[in-house]
Design brief:
single chain, alpha/beta, Arc Repressor Mutant, subunit A, 2 domains, 14 helices, 9 strands, binds S-adenosylmethionine
Length: about 350
């Protein structure tokens, strides 16, 4: 055996364990309010931060040490203070923006808490149902993409489809498939004051949260339905349908796509957003690919398999995505030239 290779790989394992611990400490920073308390960037001592937040001094001190070791915070040894660089605060304490990364800190611990159940499924088959995931996962989904939907969906992504943008501006109908907590539907309602939007999702927790947010926003042009596409009224046809971070999760992707196609208005378009993953495993051998295979095992794939679905997985890739759309009878299927590090976008017309 090559001893250097063993040493290098040991460092890889420590690095990855460090990443898992850093995300766990990120969870604590978010839940305790410590990131927010430090977002002004001012140097602060551990006792002063603990006084400011009302949190237990020894926990605050150890968290500051750990986040400094991970490179998330800076420490001035002589002054005995800690600070959050503005560039880190841009990602750590910027909830509601399209650059906030806090959703990942909720996602990591929540997904890993399912490890025993996923291990059981390796032996017995099946999987972990969506409903088994805790509230942190629902919140993580909201935080991971909600800011991008609010700030990019109408102003950038839909500008790639000018005729759809115009129809929605004039009062068109939109369908949000697998709407989750409803942030796509609500972003559409805000950007297109004449449009009517229907969102549906089988998860009752997500729909309850979506309805609550819509009520708080005071919008009556969004209808949230708890259920599957078969539960929609047969009549309305839609100018725009969106499947955001959802196609790869479905238990019946082919049948759902065929049904969506039958509900498209002439000239309407379906936009599909999928995690940015390549078709070849070799091209996914990088940090984002690792994150996405983890998301797949601990959530996307297992919840589809739990329902008897195909378990397409988070890294389904563009080839499989476009072939699913073509097989469902959509024409003019193509990838949209939308810049995003984490997602890719497709359009399909009935
Ligand atoms: C990763 S979440 C994305 C939610 C939302 N589109 C977003 O981007 O925030 C995937 C969603 O698909 C939903 N889902 C699963 N199976 C479905 C089905 N057969 N029809 C519609 N939605 C489904 C899940 O309940 C979940 O809310």
């Amino acid at each position: 055996m090559d001893k250097d290779r063993i040493g290098t790989f040991a460092n890889t394992v420590y690095r990855d364990m460090a990443g898992a611990m850093a995300i766990g400490m990120g969870y604590l920073g978010l839940k305790s309010g410590l990131f927010d308390a430090m977002k002004d960037g001012a140097p602060v001592s551990a006792p002063d931060l603990s006084k400011k937040t009302g949190l237990t001094p020894r926990y605050v001190e150890e968290w500051l040490n750990g986040m400094t070791a991970a490179g998330w915070l800076e420490h001035d040894e002589a002054a005995g203070t800690f600070s959050m660089p503005a560039e880190h605060g841009f990602l750590l304490a910027s909830e509601g923006t399209d650059h906030y990364m806090g959703g990942l800190f909720l996602a990591g611990p929540s997904l890993l808490s399912q490890a025993p159940e996923v291990a059981r499924a390796f032996r017995e088959g099946g999987g972990v149902h969506f409903g088994a995931f805790d509230d942190d996962w629902i919140e993580a989904l909201d935080l991971m993409n909600g800011g991008a939907y609010r700030h990019r969906l109408a102003s950038y992504w839909l500008k790639q489809l000018p005729e759809i943008d115009q129809r929605l501006a004039e009062g068109g109908k939109a369908l949000d498939i697998g709407c989750g907590v409803g942030k796509v539907s609500l972003a559409l309602a805000e950007a297109y004051p004449n449009a009517h939007i229907t969102g549906f999702d089988p998860d009752s927790n997500s729909i309850a949260r979506a309805r609550k947010t819509a009520a708080e926003a005071g919008t009556d042009r969004v209808t949230f339905i708890e259920g599957l596409i078969a539960d929609l009224e047969p009549d309305p046809v839609f100018d725009f349908a969106g499947m955001f971070d959802c196609l790869h999760d479905l238990a019946e992707p082919e049948a759902t796509l065929v049904e969506i196609r039958s509900r498209m208005a002439p000239g309407g378009a379906l936009m599909v957003m999928e995690p940015r993953a390549a078709d070849r495993l070799a091209d996914n051998a990088n940090p984002l690919g690792t994150v996405y295979y983890g998301f797949s095992l601990f959530h996307c794939m297992t919840q589809s398999l739990a329902q008897g679905g195909p378990g397409l997985g988070t890294c389904m890739g563009p080839e499989k995505t476009t072939s699913l759309l073509r097989d469902a009878g959509f024409s003019e299927v193509s990838e949209l030239p939308i810049k995003s590090q984490t997602n890719m976008f497709f359009v399909a017309r009935a």
